[in-house]
Amino acid sequence: MGEWVIGAFINLFGSIAINFGTNLLKLGHDERERHSILGSEGANGKTELKPIIYFQTWRIGLLFFALGNCLNFLSFGYAAQSLLAALGSIQFVSNIAFSYFVLNKMVTVKVMVATAFIVLGNIFLVAFGNHQSPVYTPEQLAEKYSNITFLLYCLILVLVVTLHQYLYRRGELLLTVPGHDLKSYWHMLLPFSYAVVSGAVGSCSVLFAKSLSNLLRLSMSSGYKLHSWFMYSMLLLFLSTAGFWMARLNEGLSLFDAILIVPMFQIAWTFFSICTGFVYFQEFQVFDALRTTMFILGMISVFIGISLLAPDESKGGEDKESSLVSVTSSSMSTDVDRYTILGLALSSFRLKLDARF
Predict the structure, then answer these.
(1) CA distance 354 to 245
(2) Global pTM?
(3) Cα(first)–Cα(last) distance of the chain, in Å?
(4) SS3 content of the chain, % helix, strand, coil (to 5)
(5) What's the rounded Cα separation, in Å, for the pair 324 and 249?
(6) Could you count the other beta carbons within 10 Å of the beta carbon of residue 278?
(7) Tell me: the pLDDT tens digits for 256-289?
(8) Cα distance between residue 68 and residue 113, in whole Å
(9) What is residue 329's predicted lDDT score, i.e. its pLDDT?
(10) What is the distance between the alpha carbons of residues 202 and 159, in angstroms, rounded to a whole number?
(11) Angle, nearest 10°, between helix axes 258-280 and 148-176?
């Protein structure tokens, strides 16, 4: 059995554990709210919320969440970044199962179709993705960061981020103009630009996490000492980009409807994570025309499935309450009680690695 299979299975179990923990964390916060309401009714007044750590459901959820993060971090030492980044979408499938069996939510035909797209896409990604994940020395990793192809990709990434940040700021300014009605396309362009900037920068944390995981695997196999300038540089860059990603997730959820922004976050994060792995680790070198076509079709299938999981806004608030789309690991680590299990999807895809660590 190839090492990529080990990495894929570790990542799969890690993603499921993170999703399970995420939902338990949310249930813990719901239990806390109910306890506060019951207490206020009995005391005929407002009762102060108990610290969340007192609730067992939340503590168990935190344990599963931490375990899943550790498994995902370990998996990046054994399989290609592009493969594992795409596999993060399996959280949506596990969340549907959790919602049906634990929360007794209805599984609609639309949800089943979305699940089929995600599962089919993941089958394509696993079957035709990169199955190699060599161990690199710090010198080799540092050399890859100075590769002309990677530097060109970074330049393109900067231009993409700059363009979409400009579009977002432009839209914000138009919103502040009294009596000015925004054209309809701005209502989609604003969250899209916000998600692209977030995903482009946040996905870099996956690259730094894989570099750290590679160094950890190297130390276990050859006795390499982790105390080096390169390791500390990767750690600092990882914490910076992961922190940026989590902050943008929290802010984005407060600025836009979760029904709209969460699928955009997930798709942008996944797309840029795959592209970064392709360019930096040159994972595209093992792809021929057939594998490239099938891998792209797998990505499209996953993205369609994620988009279909967003409830239909036209049906009103009731559908939003019955949605089976959950918060991903990416958005859970800092402000769980702001997200409902119903309206959200990462992270993380999530972080899929970013906010997961």
Answers:
(1) 7
(2) 0.70
(3) 28
(4) 75, 0, 25
(5) 19
(6) 19
(7) 876 677 778 878 888 898 889 889 988 777 788 8
(8) 27
(9) 37
(10) 16
(11) 160
